[in-house]
Each structure stands twice: as C-alpha cells, then as structure tokens.
Amino acid sequence: DQQVKQNSPSLSVQEGRISILNCDYTNSMFDYFLWYKKYPAEGPTFLISISSIKDKNEDGRFTVFLNKSAKHLSLHIVPSQPGDSAVYFCAATYQGGKLIFGQGTELSVKP
Amino acid sequence: KAGVTQTPRYLIKTRGQQVTLSCSPISGHRSVSWYQQTPGQGLQFLFEYFSETQRNKGNFPGRFSGRQFSNSRSEMNVSTLELGDSALYLCATRTSGSLETQYFGPGTRLLVL
Question: Is A89 in the B-facing interface, judged by CB distances under 8 Å?
Fold first, then answer.
C-alpha cells in the first residue's frame, strides 16, 4: 500500500530550465510534507517542506506547491543546475510521526 | 560537528544468517530512525527509538528489530536473512524537534546471497 507515490522514476532537464518533480499521496490525514535530495553514496538531505495549511513554500530556487484537493505536491527548481542532479524523494507525515517516502525521482540536469 | 555514522558501510551475508547494523547519532540527538531503501520502493520506515524506547514502528516482520543504548547509539538486527532483505539501510537522527532537523547517515549496503 504505497501512500506516497512518485510516478516518474526519472526526469531529464536542460541547465537553466525549470525542473518539476511530482508527488501524489492517498492519506488525507497527512499534515506535513518534505522533500529530500540524495546523492549516490550519501544519505538524503532535507531540502524544503510545507505544512498542509499552506499551498506554497519557497526557498531560493526551490518552491514546493501543495494541492490538497488533488492530494498532489510538486517541487519546482528554477533555474536548474547540473549540481541539482540527484534523486529526489518526497515524504509525508501525520502529527510529526513516521515519515512515509515516495519511490524517488532521479533528476538529471544536462549542461 | 561530526555527522551520523553508520557501520559497517558494506556487508555480504548469506540466506539464513543474521546481521547487526550500527548507527551513531550526532552529539545531542536522542532520536534514531531506521529506513530500508530498495529500488522501486523508495525509503520504507522501519522504526524509531527515542531515549532507549521504541516510539514508532513500520510494517516490517518481527525478524527486524532494534534497540537504543543510553548514549543514543542504535543497533538494528535482522535475523534469518532473506534475499529480499538486500537493500541500503539508512539511519536518521535528530533532537526531539522537527523533522527538518533530521540528518541521515550514509547507509549500510547489505547484500544477501
């Protein structure tokens, strides 16, 4: 039972363009969402988060959008840089409990 | 400040054996969570320990167990290994605060033959 889904295993984008990574969830009780970035041979690192009471959160080049009615969130990276190439995981939680992760999307930013 | 340390980094075992993985948290972090990462499944939550007590548990069989010591270091044990247990095992540590302050270790890559 995959409560958090990232349906695109991979995404390729040209440097300078926008990267859009998508995530869907099924559990309407989730109240907090996080995005993590993972390089090979390293653990995931926290990138950005959003509470269910908001629909947008921005941090520099990274913006997360939340559509509660569609149970959908997306991460926008503008402009994309080669150093952004990594696997991106979205995760959801309820009342600060355990994190439920998606399967990950591998982003490749080409120069 | 030193990061999260996981040992060993790589491990090869055969079916039926058992394995113990270790996680040393960042100084001051009292919560340790364990995750299993496999291709196609992403990261799946195993359990969380806080102050030597299991605070949360995922949907894994009883072959997967853990414990936490008084110095906050944590161990994870898998008994009667199966081929499907081959994965990257990650631990993440934090203070009692928000999940944004959770830091992951580099993981232990387990291969079961």
Answer: yes
Q: For residue A64, is pLDDT > 90? A: yes
B25 interface with A at CB cutoff 8 Å: no
Mutate to test the interface with B, among A3, A46, A87, A90 (most CBs of B within 10 A): A46
Whole-number average pLDDT of chain A: 95
Q: Is the pLDDT of residue A1 over 80?
A: no
Report, as an integer, the average pLDDT of B59-75.
96
Q: Which of A52-56, A67-71, B55-59, B81-85 has the lowest mean pLDDT?
A: B55-59
Quote the CA–CA distance of B38 and A60 in Å, as a whole number. 31
- Of chain A, the end-to-end C-alpha distance in Å amounts to 38
Closest CA of chain B from A93, distance in Å:
9
Contact A47, A58 (CB under 8 A): no
